[in-house]
Every structure is written in C-alpha cells, then in structure tokens.
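Q: Sequence in, structure out?
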Amino acid sequence: MIVLVPAVMLAGLFLFWPGFTSLFANDNHLVRIELPEPGSSLNLPAVLGPPDASRPLIVIDAGHGGHDPGAGGDGLQEKTLTLDLARTLRDQLLANGGIRVALTRDDDRFLALAERRDIARALGATLFLSIHADSAGEEKDVSGASLYTLSAQASDEAAARLATRENRADRINGMVLDDQNGSVNAILFNLSQRRARDDAGELARLIVREGEGEMVFHPSPRRSAAFAVLKSPDIPSILFEAGYITNPDEARRLASPEGRMQFGEIVARAIRIYFARQAGG
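A: Exactly. Output:
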C-alpha cells in the first residue's frame, strides 16, 4: 500500500520531530539526511598550527558536501574537488608555519550555509575563505577563476545568478534551513561590515596579483554578490570560484596534483602577504 503524505505534514515533521530523517529522490536514488536535534551546538573542527591564539586563523570552507554535490563535469563533483583544494591550501599554510588553519569540513558531510560562517565566528577566525567550482552549463569552453566578496547588489547578472544558485544549498525538500532574520541584515552594512568587506577585497586583489601568469582568471576576476555564506558581520570573507568544473581541461587541471599544488601555493602566498600587511597596520 502506498501512502501519500501531504507536503505540509512533512514540513511539520521537519520542524517539530527531533531527529527526523528525511528520505527523498535525487537523481534516481534515495538520499538519507540526518537532521540535527533542535538547539544542538556546532561541531567545531580542530584548529591546526601553532598553539598561540594571537596568531591569525583562517577558516577554509570546502563548498557543498553530503547530499549536495554542487556542480559536476568531466566525471567530477564539485564537493570532492573543493575538499581536495581546501586540504591542499591547508597543508601549504601549515607547512610554512605561523598561521592557524581550520576546515569547516574534512569529509563528505552536509553543512548549512549559516553553519559554515558560524563555525568561523565561533572559532574567532581572522579570515574566511569558501572554495567552489563554477558551472557554465553546456558551454564547455568557459574558463577562469573568480573571487567574490559580499555586496547587497551583485556586480553583474552572472554574479547574481551564481549567488542565487549557491544560496539554494540551504534548501532541503524546498525548506530553507537558514534562520537569519532582519536584525542580522541590519548589521551587515555597519562600520564593522564595511571594514570586513574592504579587507576581503584586498585579499582578492592579492590573490589575482600573485596568480598572474600562473592561474587562469575570469576576464573580470573580482566580483561581488549577496552570498549567504559570506554574511559574517566582522570577518573578511571570500567565495573563491577556482575555475569551471564544466570545462574539461580546467576541471582536469584543478583535480590534478599539479593543479591543486599550484592553487595552494598561490593562495597561501597571497594570504601570507595579506596577514603581514594587516600586522603592519
């Protein structure tokens, strides 16, 4: 016997039944998602590096994960590619010392967008970097990395579409998981937020500078949009689209050990310059 459960009743189970497990169809198979207990605390990751709280801390966020694979192309999934890049960058930063590093996820798990930025805030991060891989649909010749900072107004139409797509990662069965309210929106544009956006823009500029001649960038590499994962009011935050996973050549390069190492070295170098300038006032 098949029982059809109205969507309203399912929504009620999500909201009021602690520990409810949802089962739903996704690409012709079932995905099981364990939802956290209401009011459960963040599962904070380990902070690696020097045991000195005065040293700068960067939280690196590998985009997507778990039931949310992100974009796909050339047999790759964005969630796997971003985790490999995040681990490589972490290792590069730790190898040269002086900087503390934490990953929002170091395995294939789902994190809501608010959880990702809340981890950075709970750890007292100096910097937050979310790594992603872009998609151009059927246009396989589009290539180039882009760095996004937060803005209420998108820098262009493509940036607005990307922010809309990435922000959908907080939906399960049509339900929005982010509990952000209007009071937080009001904070975003106070003096602290403006300073954080300015600092994020400086890091984006340094990454483009350090990668010139080595990394392929989009013709307009520094862009902005209202990405939910960037909405920390006091932490400089960047969403780094490392390239187009829908471009076979670019996807293979980013997935290769050489491509990952190049990415890690360039970004780590820019981060070190950024922290050195911040320390110098």
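Residues 168 and 176 are 8 Å apart (CA to CA).
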